Structure prediction request, 447 residues.
Amino acid sequence: MERWRLAVKVCVVGLGLLLTASVAQASGVEDLLYEKGQITKEEWLKLKAEHEREEAIVQQRSTIKNWFDKISIRGYVQARYSYLPGDKSIRSEYDNTIRDNTGFAFRRARLVFSGDITDWLSFYIQPEFSGSVPGTTGDQSNHFVQLRDAYTDIFLPVPLLFLDKKELRIRVGQSKVPFGFENLQSSQQRLAFDRSDGINSAANGERDLGLFLYYTPNETRKLFRKLIDSGLKGSGDYGLLGIGVYNGQTINVNERNDSKHVVVHATYPMELPYGQIIQFGADAYRGTFNVGATAPLTTGGPAIGRENNGNILDERVGVHFVLFPQPIGIQAEWNWGHGPQLNASRTAVEEGNIQGGYVQGMYRWVVNDWNTITPYVRYQEYSGGKKHRTNAPFNVVREWEVGMEWQFTKSLEFTIAYARSRRTDTQTAPYNIREGDIVRTQLQYNF
Prediction:
């Protein structure tokens, strides 16, 4: 037995010596050689200096990040199933699952590639993998890749006047047009199934190509981030103040005139002394929208004219207010303006009045560290043209929606909702008004 104990001790000591030798500094070897007189003092100093130089190079390399260390990849997928218990002819341009003979379908499948190129330059690219071919409604037009976002943020790298570092940035490329609250809020964060017609009709797809200038104080940026990280359904950082110039023909559509749209955005989030967070603001934009080629409402019917060769004033002003759910919340937006729309006699597309918005109430119940349940009720209405649709048909929307989101973890959530909807079918002439019930479910997973 004593021999076995001695053998174990020898093995342990030997292993320790091997590990010590493997991590020993070269300087230890140099010192040992010098002490034994095998190298001169000059040789010892030279070896010592070379070792320190090599060690400095290694330390410097360890602080340099590779390009792939600066890029993050994330995304989310929304799978839906819809059921129409009443009128099967009701349609919504925001959800292709609202139709007869429907089934399981992807509403969104997105990847986000983002990162910092330098300390003052970042990029953001987001493709959509469940898109449909524009202008088609066939069974084989699904799951095509479309570009949603592709832009770079150029930060002011040094303080300027009263601005601190990185408080001012220029965004160039295809990105969201800073108009409203819900349009800027990611679909990954939004509680209701779809954005409201009244607000989203300002910029179909929420995005366009242009140049935008944003100002966000550092403390406000932290509050924007807190609203997202804490699950309070924030809009993200689109500036305390913003101004932009963009094409105005909406997402993935070429510019069709020389007139650019100009947008002004102002929003102010604030945390009250007792912890409640609110946000309020106003937005406005103005430009000339070019209505594309029109089509007769019936086969062989009269042609639809276009005022000013299709170049029609497009302007709006809107306001928003959000009381974030802590636990009771209210979210409301409304906008007014003028834009292209099919006239009452249905003979031409002309400038007309626009108004619409929504009011939403919600209650956030944090069950435990993993589960959060948020029931909500929303009313929306809209009266005005849909400028991006053929003939810019006049659209009437009156809709109530009651639903509940159940977030199991931050990576998985389930939503169910019932809506009583009265809306114009803007996809098919003669643009009849449909009314009916809609039941929808959605499973969303984030990664």
The chain has two domains: 2-61, 65-446. The mean pLDDT is 88. Residues 334 and 357 are 4 Å apart (CA to CA). Residues 2-61 form one domain.
